[in-house]
Specification:
The chain is mainly alpha-helical and 180 residues long. The protein has two domains: 49 residues, Arc Repressor Mutant, subunit A (Orthogonal Bundle), CATH 1.10.10; 126 residues, Tetracycline Repressor, domain 2 (Orthogonal Bundle), CATH 1.10.357.10. 76% of the residues lie in helices and 0% in strands. The protein is built from nine helices and no strands. The longest helix has 24 residues. It is elongated and about 55 Å long.
Length: 180
């Protein structure tokens, strides 16, 4: 029962933060305002977080962790269109959160952390034809480029279908690999 209550409290706080970030710069969101939006008291907030930065970091960690689990659930080797499509469906299901996190002033750290964590997760899966000294650089290049495309896609309110975006990202990835 307690775990369920904790999950509910954290979910309410995360939803409230994303909601507030739509209209309020992050550095102007106070714990008081956040708690009012979430409908909880400040004591409850401080049971789970020291400040709003910790809450934001947990939101980012949740997204990055889930994205890595999607990647790791697929067959070892090159990312396939199906794997990319699964990731894009995840972005689509969490559109508002991604829109906020990719657009706010501190988004560079989210993009960099995402790339770093995903590279660490899939480094060994990168094609063996690519020399080891180039793998990490190429993976960062591909991932940051993919995140930039996803950012544009999110900001266009998903103008293209996830299947079309997956095809574009798959082609981009294979172009990068083929040129090495």
């Amino acid at each position: 029962m307690d775990n369920q209550r904790v999950r509910l409290t954290k979910r309410l706080l995360k939803e409230a933060l994303i909601s507030l970030m739509q209209t309020t710069p992050f550095d102007r969101i106070t714990v008081k305002k956040l708690c009012e939006e979430a409908g909880i008291n400040r004591t409850t907030f401080y049971l789970h977080y020291t400040d709003t930065n910790k809450l934001l970091t947990e939101i980012e960690d949740d997204l990055i962790g889930f994205a890595i689990s999607i990647v790791n659930d697929h067959v070892i080797g090159n990312p396939s269109s199906a794997e990319i499509f699964s990731l894009l469906n995840f972005v689509q299901a969490n559109l508002l959160t991604f829109k906020i996190l990719l657009s706010f002033e501190g988004s560079d750290s989210f993009v960099q952390r995402s790339a770093d964590e995903i590279v660490r997760s899939i480094k060994e899966r990168f094609p063996e034809t690519v020399p080891n000294e180039k793998k990490e650089l190429l993976m960062h290049f591909a991932l940051v480029g993919a995140l930039a495309l996803i950012h544009e896609w999110v900001n266009s309110d998903l103008r293209l279908m996830p299947e079309e975006m997956a095809e574009i990202l798959d082609k981009m990835y294979h172009c990068i690999i083929q040129t090495t």
